[in-house]
Design goal:
- This protein has 257 residues and is an alpha+beta fold.
- It has a single domain, classed as q2cbj1_9rhob like domain (Jelly Rolls, Sandwich), CATH 2.60.120.620.
- The protein contains six helices and 16 strands.
- Strands 1, 4, 5, 7, 12, 14, 15 and 16 form an eight-stranded antiparallel sheet that branches. Strands 6-13-8-11 form a four-stranded antiparallel sheet. Strands 2-3 form a two-stranded antiparallel sheet.
- The chain is globular and about 50 Å long.
Length: 257
């Protein structure tokens, strides 16, 4: 067990308050270079695996993936445990304690990659909307592996005060993209334009979307999510992972495997 509670927090009281009141905050250039390179180095292999699976099934779309356009490659830690160096680091412990408290499990992790294609946008949704209507809040960490801009399809966040919703709403599936859509209003959202190595931290109840990648390069993001309790589906079955991370504010997960 590793004690981290005496370490100075990177997250300010203002940011903690913003998370409580608006559901998000952004940390710029916070990911150590070693961890950023680790996350980048593992990304292409998951893209190649998704392409291989779609080719084997003779399709260009499979789930939320669209060949050459966008990729959602999940459970990366289970397939590449070395990623635990980042997932269970001091930085992520700090973020968890500032948002969900002293108890934290790794619930989900995935690469979210946009290819250079105008059909790579993603619809307005809440992350909990992909679970069920009574899903407890968890925290999403949107980690930028590249500089993110309006042109390459960055994320847009809808603060609580802009929409007046702090709970999960029913989502409707888009039959073409397989997106679950939960917001149909006119609010544009707050665009996150930050350099590589930054993290947009937001509640699973915050609506967000992303635009298309109109550049000629990939836009790569790694997205771990942490929960204070085991996340279950509407039938009570465990969803995702429940890898212990923090107990009473102290790290119980190993940094390496």
């Amino acid at each position: 067990m590793s004690t981290l509670t005496d370490s100075p927090s990177l997250i300010t009281e203002q940011q903690k308050q913003q998370f409580r009141e608006e559901g998000y905050f952004v940390l710029e250039r916070c990911v150590p270079d070693e961890h950023l390179e680790l996350l980048r180095a593992n990304c292409q292999g998951f893209i190649d695996a998704a392409d291989k699976e779609m080719t084997a099934q003779g399709v260009d779309r499979l789930g939320l993936n669209a060949k050459g356009k966008r990729y959602f490659n999940a459970h990366c830690y289970q397939k590449s445990p070395i990623m635990g160096k980042f997932l269970f680091s001091d930085l992520m412990a700090d973020i968890c304690r500032a948002t969900i408290g002293s108890e934290a499990n790794l619930f989900w992790d995935q690469y979210v990659v946009k290819g250079p294609d105008k059909d790579s946008a993603f619809s307005w949704h809440q992350d909990s909307g992909y679970v069920h209507i009574d899903c407890p809040m968890y925290v999403t960490c949107w980690v930028t592996l590249d500089d993110v801009t309006l042109e390459n399809g960055t994320v847009y966040l809808l603060p609580y005060s802009h929409v007046g919703i702090r709970s999960v709403v029913n989502h409707i599936p888009d039959p073409r993209t397989n997106d679950m859509v939960g917001y149909f209003g006119r609010e544009p959202g707050v665009a996150v334009t930050v350099p590589a190595g930054s993290i947009a931290v937001f509640s699973s109840y915050v609506f967000h979307r992303s635009g298309p990648n109109l550049t000629n390069k990939l836009r790569r993001v790694y997205l771990p999510q942490y929960a204070a309790t085991v996340i279950r589906d509407a039938k009570g079955n465990q969803k995702g992972q429940a890898e212990p991370f923090l107990r009473n504010g102290e790290r119980v997960a190993a940094l390496t495997t």
